[in-house]
Amino acid sequence: MGIFDGKNLHGMHVVHDGPWEAPPLVLIHGSGASGSSWGPVVPALASRYHVIRIDLPGHGQSAPAPSYEVPEQAASLAAALDELGLRPVTVAGHSSGGYIATALAEQRPDLVGSLALISSGPSPDALLPQPVFLRLLIAPPLGPLVWRVRSDAMLRRGVTAVCNRPVDVPDDLVAEVRGIGYRTFRTVLRQNGAYIAERSLPARLTALDVPVLVIFGAADRRWDPSSAHHYDTVPNARVEQLPDVGHFPMLEAPEETGELLLSFAATAR
Question: What is the pTM (predicted TM-score) of this model?
Answer without folding.
Answer: 0.96
